[in-house]
What does this fold into?
Amino acid sequence: MTRQNVYEIVTDTVVQALENGTVPWHQPWNVEVGVPLSLATGKPYRGVNPFLLGLTALANGYRSPWWGTLKKINERGGSVRKGEHSTLVVFWKSYLHKAKGDDEQDERRFLLRYYRVFNADQADWADGKEPAYAALERPDVERIAAAETIVDGYPDAPSMRTGEAAYYEPGAVDRVTMPPIEAFDSAEAYYATLFHELTHSTGHESRLDRDGVRTGSFGRFGDPVYSKEELVAEMGAALLCALAGIDQKALVENSAAYLRSWLDVLREDSKLIVQAAAQAQHAADHILGTTFPEDG
It folds into this structure.
């Protein structure tokens, strides 16, 4: 499978979900059990992978957060049932490209690679060896406290003020404006919106320096730079909502016009969803004050 084919498979999965009325970046996984987890590492999947795995889990009713290769499931005492289908996950593989000329430097490059995994619910487990997990169901007060912890922990956060609308101002202003929490239907809606705007703010030139923010203007919907930045913000918000236990997907109404607009954008650029998801992961990491060498 070529690099371009991997992009196309990922995009086709997202396009199919949109055609069926599901927006993958609105947190398709079950918030009660958290983001998908790797049987190999015990850690959450990163980048576009939690969204791809969440879509599969949503479509098939899987309740387990655990995913692994056929080999890893067998090692853990499981046996994938006959006729079950795997789900593609992607990762970046780096290599050093040797310079051809004496006046050139070697360059670190990245290739998009893939492998296939199964959900723990697709396997039979001998002697009760199915991997256990603790459900993340929490009272409202605990979810809101978790959200506040994320906001307060943003290491180089922009300034914030109260206003009539929610938006981020880049450049020298570097400020998030939010209506008061009482103006929202719920505290969950407030924090989902705030996480969206804070994700935008990570693109400031003093932070992650993203094109859609560095220019000082998000442009208009349908513009490639704007569309990518909006995807970054929505996916970043979904990742942060999952950490706080907030069911972000239940807060968004997916209108036909909204879905059609995204379909048009994604059909034009098969790389958009993978690249935006990677940037969203970096944005969430920045807000959380964590760093990882690679996504996937």
Remarks:
- The chain has a mean pLDDT of 89.
